[in-house]
Amino acid sequence: MSKLSGVKVAFLVEDGYEDMECWYPKIRLEEAGAETSVASRERGVLESKHGYPIEAASTAEELDPGSFDAVVIPGGTGSPDKLRRSKPVKDFVKKMDREGKLIAIICHAGWVPISAGVLKGKTATGYEAIKDDLVNAGVEYRDESVVVDGNLISSRHPGDLPDFLKEIIDYLE
């Protein structure tokens, strides 16, 4: 039996996502036995920054937080900026947080839980360009490859992916 057998992880993705920050976690989690689902504001094929499209089989509105153990939000400036403007996306992230489910963010993805209002009082990291946004949202910012604070795991950029995934997999085991 795989170590994450029975674990379900939602990915919130939109056009302009950073390829490695989506595909690397998705593949690693599936290798560990987790079931992954990609959702967005609308169903359909989403274009990445570097040419690796992904299909959103559902909308954020269709996701049931009770059916998932975690949500991963990849970065890339376009994707999180579009996602954070969606009420169903913010509602899903709020419900996941309320239920104590894992929220994993990397790079610019911190914008989504900032807009969902779930980061105040947390310790986290993110891409240096959104440091002020995180701090202004009430986050104690750390410039580290990965920061774990309760049900929140955050990393700065694609170079942090090995540390990011190690913590996500450890958390979900």
Description:
The protein is of the alpha/beta class and 173 residues long. It has a single domain (8-172), classed as Rossmann fold, CATH 3.40.50. The chain contains 6 helices and 11 strands. The strands form 3 sheets. A 7-stranded mixed beta sheet has the order 5-2-1-6-7-11-10, with helices on both faces. It has a two-stranded antiparallel sheet with strand order 3-4. Strands 8-9 form a two-stranded parallel ribbon.
Give a quick set of tags describing it.
7-stranded mixed β-sheet, alpha/beta, two-stranded antiparallel sheet, Rossmann fold, 173 residues, 23% strand, 11 strands, globular
Q: In percent, how much strand structure appears in the residues?
A: 15-25%
Biggest sheet, spatial arrangement of strands: 5-2-1-6-7-11-10
Query: What's the name of the CATH homologous superfamily?
Result: Class I glutamine amidotransferase (GATase) domain
H/E series, N to C? Answer: EHEEEEEHHEHEHEEEH
Summarize the structure.
This protein is of the alpha/beta class and 173 residues long. It has helices spanning 19-31, 78-83, 87-98, 111-116, 131-136, 161-172, and strands at 8-12, 35-40, 44-46, 54-56, 58-59, 70-73, 102-106, 123-124, 140-141, 146-149, 152-155.
Could you give the topology of this structure?
Layout: E1 8-12, H1 19-31, E2 35-40, E3 44-46, E4 54-56, E5 58-59, E6 70-73, H2 78-83, H3 87-98, E7 102-106, H4 111-116, E8 123-124, H5 131-136, E9 140-141, E10 146-149, E11 152-155, H6 161-172
Parallel strand pairs: 1-2, 1-6, 2-5, 6-7, 7-11, 8-9
Antiparallel strand pairs: 3-4, 10-11
